[in-house]
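Memo to structure team: turn this sequence into structure tokens by end of day. - J.P.
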Amino acid sequence: LLGLLPAALSTKIGAQTQRPLAIVVVGGMITTLFLTRYLMPVLYSFYGHREPAAEAGHMAH
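Reply from structure team:
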């Protein structure tokens, strides 16, 4: 994440092609960090502790 910040903030020669990609990658990494660190535990606490369905063990072969 920190390694792409210079490319995302650069205004020097060649930044016109590298900067948009670096911004997207850094934004995606920050979003993923937020989702996995904060949102996933909340969703797991709501949906992760359900009892399995009674007929889940009777699969057709």
